[in-house]
Amino acid sequence: MPTHSTPFPEGSPANVANSGNGSSQATRRSTEFYAPALDGLRCFAVLGVLFVHFSPTLRGMMDTGSWGVRLFFVLSGFLITRSLLQTRKHVDAGQTSIQSALRAFFIRRIFRLWPVYFFCLAIAYAFNIELTRQTIWWHLLMATNQYVFHMQSWSYTGLLSHFWTLAVEQQFYIFWPFVILFAPKRRMDLLLLAVLIAGPFSRELILAMRWSNLVTLYTPLACCLDFFAIGGAVAWGHDEGWLDRFASTLRLRLLLMLAAGWLLWGTLLLKIDGRYPAHWPVYDPLFQALGFAALIVYLLQRPEGLIGRCLRFRAFVYLGEISYGIYIIHNFMHRFGPSLLHHIWGINYFPNELAHVIYYIALSITAAAASYHFFEKPVRRWGRRLA
Fold first, then answer.
1. Do the domain assignments include residue 10?
2. Is 26 among the domain residues?
3. Is there a domain that residue 204 lies in?
4. Which of 95, 132, 179, 232 has the highest count of CB atoms within 10 angstroms of its CB?
5. Confidence class of residue 8 from pLDDT cuts 50, 70 and 90?
6. What is the pLDDT of residues 250-288, one digit of tens each?
7. Is 284 within 8 Å of 310 (Cβ atoms)?
C-alpha cells in the first residue's frame, strides 16, 4: 500500500465447512463461503502498513508496508475473481443475465468502498488537511496513483498519499468483471497468465524508459497487475479443482519457507548493502505475491493447521473485518492524534516511540470500528437490497 487493500473486499472465502468461528452475516450474504483465517491475514496486512507509517525506526529496518499492500492486492484478486466465477456459473446456467450480474457487482462495490472513502475525503477537505484542497480532483476521480506517478513523489499528496492503493483497487474493479464474465472459459488460464506477465513487463518497461523512479514505480495499475492475477489464478485453480492436486502440503510448506527467506533476504540486502541488485524492483514483488498466494492456498487447504488457528483468533478476525476503514483512516491520526493527546495530557507526543505507535494504532482502530458499525454496515445493507 498498500493496499487496500482491499485493499478490501466484502468477505473472505474458504471451505464451507469452516464457515463458523468468527464469520459474519454480512459476509455470508455476499459470498457462498467464508474463511476467518483470511480476515486474520488482512489484520496483519493492515498492521504492517500502520507500523511503517507510524514508526520511523521500523520503516528504516524493513518494508512491511509494501508487503501489506501486496498481500491486500493478492487477496483482492482472489476474492473478487472467486466471486465473479461463481456469478459466471449462474449466468451460464441462465439463472441471471450478464447485465444484471454486472449491475449487482458494481452496486455492491460502490456501497462497500465509496461511502467511507468519500466521507474521509470530505473530512480532509473540511479541515484543510495537508495538500487535500490542491489535489482534491485527483482523489475524487480516484486517480491518486496517477497523480503520484505523474509528480514522481509522495510529498505532493500529503496525508492522503495512501489513497493511491484505493485508486488502484477501484481501477482494477472497473475492468476485471468484464474479463472474467466475458472471456472464453477454455482460455482463462492463458488470460490470467497474460495479465500476470503484464505486471513485471510494465515495471521493466517503465524503468527502461526512465518514466519513473523506484519510489513511485508501483503506483500505476499496470505495475500491480501480477498481484491481482496471481490471486485470480488461485481462485481459478480452486474453482476448477486442480489446485488441490497440484499444491500438496509439502510443496506449500516449501514455498512458504522460500517466501519467508526471500523477504528476509530483501530486508538484509537493504539494511546491510543499502541497495538492491539490478532489476530487483521488477521481480521482487512478483516473488512476494507468489509467496502470499501460497499462504492463501495453505490456509484454504489446512484451515485447522497452526497458522490457520492463530489467524482465526477473534481479535485478528475482527481487525481484518474493519481493515478497510483502518487503512483509510490511519494517516489522519498524524493530524488529529497530537491535538487529542494535548487536550488529555497536555503533550503532543509520547516521549517513547513505541507508546506513540500504540496510541496511533489504538486511535485508528477505534475510529474504524465506529465507522464500521455506525456507518459502513448500514450503508452496505442498503447496497445489498439495491443489488
1. no
2. yes
3. yes
4. 232
5. very low
6. 888 899 999 999 988 888 876 666 677 778 889 999 999
7. no
Instruction: Give, rounded to a whole angstrom, the gap between the first and last alpha carbons of the chain.
Output: 29
DSSP 3-19: -------S-----GGG-
User: Tens digits of per-residue pLDDT, 111-137?
Assistant: 999 999 999 999 999 999 989 999 999
Nine cell digits for residue 114: 465509496
Query: pLDDT tens, 48-95?
Result: 999 999 999 888 888 899 999 999 999 999 999 999 999 999 999 999
In the numeric block, the cell 482460455 is attached to: 187
Would 2 be classed as within a structural domain? Answer: no
Q: Own/partner pairs for 94-101, CB < 8 Å, 24+ apart?
A: 98/181, 98/182, 101/177, 101/181
Distance of CA 338 to the CA centre of its chain: 28
Please, are residues 23 and 40 in contact by the beta-carbon 8 Å criterion?
Answer: no
129 torsion bin: left (phi>0), alpha (psi -120 to 50), beta (else) = beta
Domain that holds residue 37: 16-386
Alpha-helical segments (H) within the chain? 25-30, 36-54, 56-59, 64-92, 98-126, 136-140, 144-151, 163-182, 188-208, 225-240, 242-246, 249-268, 280-301, 306-311, 314-321, 323-330, 333-345, 353-371, 377-386
Work out how many domains the chain is built from and give that number: 1
